[in-house]
UniProtKB/TrEMBL annotation:
InterPro entries: Class_I_gatase-like (IPR029062), PRibForGlyAmidine_synth_PurQ (IPR010075). PANTHER family: PHOSPHORIBOSYLFORMYLGLYCINAMIDINE SYNTHASE (PTHR10099). It catalyses: N(2)-formyl-N(1)-(5-phospho-beta-D-ribosyl)glycinamide + L-glutamine + ATP + H2O = 2-formamido-N(1)-(5-O-phospho-beta-D-ribosyl)acetamidine + L-glutamate + ADP + phosphate + H(+); L-glutamine + H2O = L-glutamate + NH4(+). It is found in: Cytoplasm. The keyword Protein biosynthesis does not apply. Pfam families: GATase_5 (PF13507). Pathway: Purine metabolism; IMP biosynthesis via de novo pathway; 5-amino-1-(5-phospho-D-ribosyl)imidazole from N(2)-formyl-N(1)-(5-phospho-D-ribosyl)glycinamide: step 1/2. Part of the FGAM synthase complex composed of 1 PurL, 1 PurQ and 2 PurS subunits. The keyword Hydrolase applies. The active site is at C96, H222, E224. CDD domains: GATase1_FGAR_AT. It comes from the Bacteria. The gene is purQ. This is Phosphoribosylformylglycinamidine synthase subunit PurQ.
Length: 259
């Protein structure tokens, strides 16, 4: 079966592009690092790819707000191309800085460029948090977490502006639409707002959301960090058959191949 071409979008300050590309390679995809300037210059087009991922990092040095300048750049110069990619039903994944970008373009939660309803604020601790976190996977239409509902995954989180926040009406809509995909939890899967299990104080312990179709996903923790699991703090206690994040990439590749 043909390997789906994955656009791994990068710009100045992106720093998780190579491991994100590796994760898609491990999952059976064909990753390509694409600088936003190549899209702006028309040298490459999003239609050439079947999956789009915006990786983690410090795009444009996190000036103004994490992800803000790249979001304004995408909304200002690539709005039609991005909206067309999303409307065509192709999977879109934003990891950490990438999630911040998707929220600040409006592609999350509503999959509509310019419809900005939520934000990711500075952590309650007021500092950069870098730690392992447990995530409970909720039962949602998200195509990236097929088969994972109810599981408790263990990912690395590393961010300064990860606190999910929105107004009561938008939160009610996200909950009713089953768009909350990951919640910070204790090791036995109880959602929690208690630090450090919840490293940033996110509303409703939200660590990641999808759009109503389930084809656009953003999350703050890093599923692409396939660390050497024998160095994992829980290696002895938890049987790791494979990196916890790999199924997310495999599901995206499988979905793109089904299209
Ligand atoms: N690992 C990342 O992508 C970090 C995102 C962003 N730079 C922050 O600190 O919140």
């Amino acid at each position: 079966m043909k390997k789906p071409r994955v656009c791994v979008l990068r710009t100045d300050g992106t720093n998780c592009d190579r491991e994100t590309g590796y994760a898609f390679e491990r999952a059976g995809g064909d990753p390509h690092l694409v600088h936003v300037n190549q899209l702006r210059a028309g040298k490459k087009k999003l239609t050439e790819y079947q999956i789009l991922v915006i990786p983690g990092g410090f795009s444009y040095g996190d000036d103004v707000h994490s992800g803000k300048i790249l979001a304004v750049e995408l909304t200002s110069f690539l709005k039609e191309q991005l909206q067309e990619f999303v409307d065509s039903g192709k999977p879109v994944l934003g990891i950490c800085n990438g999630f911040q970008v998707l929220v600040r373009t409006g592609l999350l939660p509503a999959a509509k460029m310019g419809d900005i309803r939520t934000t990711l604020m500075h952590n309650d601790s007021g500092r950069f948090e870098c730690r392992w976190v447990h995530l409970r996977v909720e039962d949602t239409p998200c195509i990236f977490t097929r088969g994972l509902a109810g599981r408790v995954l263990h990912f690395q989180a590393a961010h300064g502006e990860g606190k999910f926040y929105t107004d009561a009406q938008t939160l009610a809509g996200i909950e009713a639409g089953k768009q909350v995909v990951f919640r910070y939890s204790t090791s036995n899967g109880d959602p929690t707002s208690i630090y450090p299990h919840n490293p940033n104080g996110s509303l409703a312990a939200i660590a990641g959301i999808c759009d109503p179709s389930g084809r656009v996903l953003g999350l703050m923790p890093h599923p692409e960090r396939f660390v050497d699991l024998t160095q994992h703090p829980n290696w002895r206690r938890q049987q790791f058959h494979e990196p916890h994040g790999l199924p997310i990439f495999r599901n995206a590749v499988a979905y793109a191949q089904e299209m």
